[in-house]
Amino acid sequence: HRGAVNSIVCNADGSQAASASADGSCIIWDLHKGVRIHALYEPTVFNSVCYHPDESQYITGSANNKIGFWDAYDGSPIRFITGGEDDITCLD
Fold this sequence. Notes:
This protein has no helices and eight strands. By secondary structure, the chain is an all-beta fold. The two termini are 23 Å apart.
């Protein structure tokens, strides 16, 4: 990341971590190998990130009021929905 990291979350078995950053990137890390698995980019500030309960998707919350759904297999965007009039600051 080249900006502040706003959120870090691990997957259920602790093998991965996802980090959301103010630089417009969300990076998925392999914690065993210490390498990047995916890098997700958007022209916004990522405030939060979480794993879908079945871990098939990453879900991001951002300063552009959108919630993003990303494919965990290849990191591609699936869809974005507007979450209201303010920044999406937390996902659970």
